[in-house]
Amino acid sequence: MLEAQDITVEYGGRQALRSVSLSLQGGEIVALLGANGAGKTTLIRALNGTLSTPHGAIQLDGKDLRAISRREIASKISVVAQENETRFPISVREFVISGRFVHGGAFGWETEDDVRAAQAALFECDLQDFETRLMNNLSGGERQRVVLARALATGAKVLLLDEPTANLDLAHQALMFQLVRERCLRQGASAVVITHDLNLASAFADEIIMLKEGAVAAHGKPSKVLTAETVRDVFKVDVLLDENPASRKVRVTALY
Amino acid sequence: MMAITLVIAASLGAERLPLFDLSEQQRSIFYDIRLPRILLGACVGASLAVAGAGLQALLRNPLAEPYLLGVSNGAALGTMLAFVAFQDSEAARPVLAFAGAGIASFAVYRIAKSGAGMNVERLVLAGIIVTTFLSSVIVMLTTLLDAVKLRSFTFWLLGDLSQATRNGVYLSGIAALIGTLVLTSQARALNLMMVGERDAFDFGVEVGRVRMLVFGSTCLVVGAAVAASGSVGYVGLIVPHLIRLSIGSDNRLVVPFSAVAGAIFVVFADTVARTAIAPRELPVGAITALVGAPLFIFLLRRGS
């Protein structure tokens, strides 16, 4: 679905990404971990074509990303990023349905498909009672869920999520990842998720990429990547590793 | 509502006109003086309102409008230069107004652009710099004119629909129509850009192209409006706000509704301007400011 080979990105003399490769297949969730400034957001921005990558190549469904139009990229890749507060009175419904932009023409109004997609996304994100509420009247966590709903409403097969659980309470953190997983399993979508939560990554991701100073420090299944040495190397923190008795997945506990 | 406003405006004036059975003289007043003026007011109002709506959405700033960004002053300066240098040419005014609006917009754009891109705050600051600079140039030019011209120019600068000509009406009418159509065609993109340029880009909007189209059509409509009627203030600021309070922020509705509401607002203001102290007249821009400023304060307080 989405393949990146040896991507290098430079910002003002500094290499933000160094020879990073990634292969994303349908149905997969890849968690992107790393310390602040490691290059995680830069990688997401390169993958959706926002940043130019003079070195290396990115292919979406076999075609070079640089050769694909903005609209086509947007119809296949959807980004969930931190949401900016808006100074205008926009309802949740208007916000989510605006994500269907690539599906309509210039003067176009929403079709039944658009409305259905938007409502399904709102329902999936537990926002069915929020349709008429104004974005500025929601809490940070509620707004974050609306941002996810907008991305889901696009119907894109590749989801790139930049810290989607940042402002969410415990229940909605799990919901967020469960939603993404369900999309991947049911509709063959795939996702790259930036998260600081190693345990969520362990529980939901099929693969983990750990970035350190722009380069890949470790890459593979959670059980292989999440080791005390790797975590110490990347995060400079000592951790205790054991097995979550309920999920049988690796459990990471930081030692303070 | 538009039709009612137009009919009332048509009958009011220094000479009150009946609705039916007009005399020869009354017919002349209506067709040659009043109707062009009312139509011009509607076109100017529509133009300034849609320009305001488009700029507010593009710049993600509810305070954006043609004045703030130097567009109107650029157009005014262009018109003045046409008046001073090409007095006999009626065509020179809108052409130089459009050029002035375009140059001012370009200057604002260049000043605002930095290595890291262009953010809304820089754009607004750049707009204020250009507006105040152009205001100074306009004042300087005004002092160079002789006393008679000075008085009429000062009046014109505050908004003056009394010089309405057929050509002026056609030009500003066509500009208003084109502007409304172009901005409505970009409305879906503006709905996304209103939330953030990065968001809009992520969802497939060709941000650079939309920016050019919105700035271009703004210059067109503001240039035509200012060339015909001087600077009528607050329309671009207040009207879109009021529309959004009534029907929400979907630009596919806000733009066309602003056009109609802007037309009504200016026709209403001009009717007051020419009847309040008849047979003398007030500048229409003074009326829109007198109504607009308190309304704006009310909106600001309501919003915070």
Would you mind describing this structure in some detail?
The complex is a heterodimer of chains A (256) and B (304). With 256 residues, chain A is an alpha/beta fold. Chain A is built from nine helices and twelve strands. In chain A, the strands form three sheets. In chain A, strands 6-7-8-3-9-10 form a six-stranded mixed β-sheet, with helices on both faces. Chain A is globular and about 55 Å long. Chain A has one domain (2-254): P-loop containing nucleotide triphosphate hydrolases (Rossmann fold). Chain A starts with a strand and ends with a strand. In chain A, helix 4 packs across helix 5. Chain B has 304 residues and is mainly alpha-helical. Chain B has a single domain (28-228, 236-303), classed as ABC transporter involved in vitamin B12 uptake, BtuC. Chain B contains 13 helices and no strands. Chain B has helices at 2-11, 24-58, 71-85, 92-112, 120-144, 147-157, 166-185, 187-193, 197-202, 207-229, 235-247, 251-275, 284-303. In chain B, helix 7 (166-185) runs antiparallel to helix 12. The two termini of chain B are 31 Å apart. The A-B interface holds A 48, 50, 70-71, 73-75, 78-79, 81, 83-84, 86-91, 94-95, 98-99, 101-102, 104, 106-109, 154 and B 56-57, 60-62, 184-189, 191-192, 194-196, 198-199, 201-206, 244-245, 248-250, 252.
